[in-house]
Amino acid sequence: MNSLRCTALVLALGLAACSKPEAPAPKAEPTPQPAAPSAPQPAPVTAPAPAASQPASVLREGENFRVASQDAESAQPKVVEFFSYGCPACYGMEAFMADYKAKRPKSIVLDFVPVPIHDEKGLLMQAYYIGKRLGMLEKSHGALFRHLHDEKKHIESAEDLTAFFVALGASPSQVKELVNSQGILDEAKAGVDSAVKFGVQSTPSFVVNDKYYTDGRMAKENLGAVFDALALRNKPAIFQ
What we know:
Elements: H1 3-14, E1 66-67, E2 78-83, H2 88-103, E3 109-114, H3 123-133, H4 137-149, H5 158-167, H6 172-178, H7 182-197, E4 205-208, E5 212-215, H8 216-219, H9 223-232
Parallel strand pairs: 2-3
Antiparallel strand pairs: 1-5, 2-4, 4-5
């Protein structure tokens, strides 16, 4: 068993599986939550409505975000979603993330990091990085969610993964060279390591500027506003 597989399985044991859909929370002022318990708590499936940018006053540390790293913030404003293709909650978040991508301040970089939930063999994590290498992530990203959740198909082997990309128009030889290649495994392991660093315990989860953690449970309907406020609050005017 390679080191990525070992790391992935260890992380998977510490990650909460994504939750079933929940009704939207009542629109009442949320009360401050205590520090996160040691037991993982999954984020809700229901995606918030996209929100316009709001001032930093929307931020309440310990309630709708927490500090996830003592390192300095990234110089570039960015929002990273930690997700799994096998997670129904992540699929449910896709429409919101597409809308946020279109409407976000253009200085904010949006990125994604796959983690090993419902992905014991790490093949779904590989699929993300293979899609990037092939220059077809815009096509493969949504297609893999639909493949798993709408069409109820599975990716259980290197052959399944190859067949998925070939069906999207990729060259079989190119895909075979990438599946289980050292470069792809290294990228997947780096993603797992970053999830461990930031204390990601459920999907979908978000880390802003390599420092601040939030998710749908914490930010609720203000998720987009929390992204913007966290990403830009300490940045010079050029990023505003």
